[in-house]
Each structure stands twice: as C-alpha cells, then as structure tokens.
Amino acid sequence: MADEPQITVGTGPLTFDEVVAVARHDIGVRLSDEALEAIDRAREVIDHLAASPRPAYGVSTGFGALATRHIAPELRAQLQRSLVRSHAAGSGTEVEREVVRALMLLRLSTLATGHTGVRRETAQLLADLIDRGLTPIVHEYGSLGCSGDLAPLAHCALALMGEGEVRTAEGELQPAEWALRRAGLKPVQLAEKEGLALINGTDGMLGMLVLALHDLRVLLQTADIAAAMSVEGQLATDRVFAPELMALRPHPGQADSAHNLVALLADSGVVASHRGPDCNRVQDAYSLRCSPQVHGAARDTLEHAASVADRELSSAIDNPVVLPDDGRVESNGNFHGAPVGYVLDFLAIAAADVASVSERRTDRFLDANRSHGLPPFLAHDPGVDSGHMIAQYTQAGIVSEMKRLAVPASVDSIPSSAMQEDHVSMGWNAARKLRRSVDGLARVLAVEVLTAARALDLRAPLDPSPATGAVVRLLRDAGIEGPGPDRHLAPEIERTLNLVRDGSVVAAAESMIGELR
C-alpha cells in the first residue's frame, strides 16, 4: 500500500471523503512535514516536564483515580506499557476493519496536531500500520465513550508495542510482533505520556459517525426514489409535492426531498393517466403524501450531525493536552463523547422513521383493497402464489428492530474508575447500534424498490417516468426478473440491496434527470 495513492495527514482537518477512502478503500497515509514539526515541539514540552520534580498528570503520575501517585523516572516506561496492556480489555465480536482503520486514522490526525506530546517515531509507526494495511483486533465492548474510546484505542496501541493480534491487508490473523517484522516495522517502546495520548480520544465513535453519514446520504436519496416509485405505482398524486406548497413550511430537507420527487415523477405515463379534472386523488395516505416531510426531517438531522462531525474532525482530543506555545500541559474534558453520542442517537431515530414509512408504502402495494387494481400481494396467481407477502414480513421485522435501536444510548451513564469518571457518554454504544440501523434501512429500502418495480411492470401498458423506469431496467438488467410465478425471493432482495448500497439505484435515476439533491 505504501506505493499507492496516499492521504496527507497534518495539513488541516480531514474531510469525510478522506476518512471513507482510508477506512473503506484502503488508501494509505503519510504525515506532513508540518505535522512532524508540530509533534516535535509538543514533545519538547513533555521532555521538559518529565525532567521536572513537579508531578504532571499523564507524564509522571498514575491515571484516573490513581492520579495522586507520583511515578519515579525509572518506572515511567513501565507505566505506559501497563496503561496500554490493562486498558486493552475489550471483549466480544471483532469490530469491522473499516471501523478500526477509521479509528486509527482519526487518532493519527489528533497526534498530528502537536497537542498530545508523542514522539514522531510513535506517530510514524501508527501511520505505517495504516499504510501497510495492518489492522489491530478490536472488540465490540470496552468503551463507555468517555476518557475516549479507551479499550478500542488501547488494542491499537498494543499493536504498536508489538503485542496483541492484527489482520494483514489480506485478512490473515497474525501476532502483531510477527506482522510488524514482516512489514519491515519495529515495535515502539512507549515513553512518557505516549500511552495516554494513544488511547484518549473519541475516534471510534467519530469514525463510525462519518461512515454512517456517507451511507445515509445515499440512502436518503434512495428513499426519495423508492417513494416516487411507490407514489407512481399506487396511482397517487404528485401535486402535493409542488414547490409552492413546500414553501409554506420552509424546512430545507423537506424542500430538497420534494424537489427530488417532482423530478423523479416528471413525464410519467402512469401519473398522467389519472391526472385531470376527474382525478380525486388529493388525499393519499400519509406514507405517500408526507414522504418529503419524513425524508426531509431525516435530511435536516443528517446535516446537523454532519456539522458536529466537521467540528470533531477539526479537534485535538486528548487529556492532558499540550499547549506548546505556552509550554503547558493542562487537564481538560474534551474527551467526553456527548456531542458525538447525541447525534449518533438522533440519526438512529431518523433512520428508523424513514424505514418505517418505507415499510408502510410497501405494505400498501400488497393489499388489494388499497392498491388500486393491483393483484393481491402482487402475486402472479394469488392463492397459488404469495408474491411479495413475506418480503413485507422481512421489512416489518427489520423496522421493529430499528425502533428498539432508536432508543438513545447517550442518556445512559454508568460511573467508572472509582467514581472519578462518574458521567460517561456511551457514544461508542450509540455508534455501534447506528451501524445496525443503517444496514437495516438499506434492506428495508431495497424491498420497497424491488416491490415497486414489480408493481410498475404490472401497470403496463402505462409507462413509468424516465427516472423510475431506469431503476426498473437496472433491476432487470441485474437478473431480477419481473412479475411471474413465485421464485426464491431472498437472492433478489440481496441483489437489490447491493444496488442500493453501492449507489447504482441513485445513479440510474440520475442518468435520466441529473443530480438529485
């Protein structure tokens, strides 16, 4: 990976795209010269304090509730090793590779600010691990989202010491010492402050937030496409999405979603077939009529969460923090994950609600009393065939779980460290459940798109709009057949899911009408 394109860390805040590129697409990293100089300046402050007889937290004292003990110089290397080893106490399922890479990158970004006091060789080794594709094993449980994501970060720091386990770029599980040696790297012997600087940040929850924001932007555009297909397929009116109606309630997300719906439904033969003075479809069900209100609220929530993530990407999270210009090291509370934890929870609520309204739109297709002429369950031979009956069951099961996942984690707090850390954010927990919610939303939308495409085929000879027709063709070209006798449905749901996740559904619609908002 070292010869591949790299992202430079230390020339300014990382962007969302850079985090995703490193985390998900294995792009490598390098530290800028400015970052290395800033790291050196901060280290000079730490070295000065380490030589002083006056205790300095994190440099010559214990940690947390043990901060009152002054540590003799000959024990300080052991102090840092012990800190990392004891805090690498995670348990449970192995955390996804992309999450760990994001976590490592964001910790490196904080080290590059010159406010942590690590040595340049320590920061460089972290960069080298990312660049070589070596990913420490991190476990599901161990972070309370306060004093940073301690256990997850400690497992990464452990690998820098040549301890614990890592996965190679090829996915092979290896002892860290062996993997470093094979990559031409040497473990680092941690000096004063370094162990603390490596584990005291909100990097795990922030990394998961950035990844979720990236995925949700695609999914909320897909939700508009799915809603347009449902409005069209259920012979609903498009008049309720008119811009003059949206202007009466000027939420930006609502306006953008309605704009998308109008564009997606433009030139639809199905809509045109029932538009006119005889059309009485002006009071469609809420799941159809209020799609831009629900999707728009989710969009506005996403933008708020993105603004929080932007500020976090510009932050230097550590405790204590080095102020090189003043020659000071000061304790602070910036490691508290509340700002990130809140928006992670907000997004889980929004995702659950978008999934819920998607499931309701899908269900209307399947009920012959509400589908305006479509066969029961869109079945080829109702009674012999069940059509998409159980696909809606799948949606309902996912939506039910997403509602449970929408219960906030950030309102909980369990005191730790002998009551020294007596209020924690649970932001890591909020991030973990949001990942499951994002996955669930993608699956629910995939079922709606799959079902709506079948319904639009059943409306023939009426033609769908150019945009929704392009989505139907995308599915058919991917081997997902149109109406007919019952088939094994799970593979078709999975193929549609992949088209939703990778942005192909959005790209198909945009190929006909230009970029969606």
TrEMBL record:
A UniProt-annotated Pfam family: Lyase_aromatic
One of the record's GO molecular function terms: histidine ammonia-lyase activity
Enzyme Commission no: 4.3.1.3
Name of this protein: Histidine ammonia-lyase
Keywords: Histidine metabolism, Lyase
Organism: Nocardioides vastitatis
Family (UniProt): Belongs to the PAL/histidase family.
Pathway: Amino-acid degradation; L-histidine degradation into L-glutamate; N-formimidoyl-L-glutamate from L-histidine: step 1/3
Lyase in keyword set: yes
Cell compartment(s), UniProt: Cytoplasm
Reaction it catalyzes: L-histidine = trans-urocanate + NH4(+)
Signal peptide: none
Enzyme class: lyase
Primary gene name: hutH
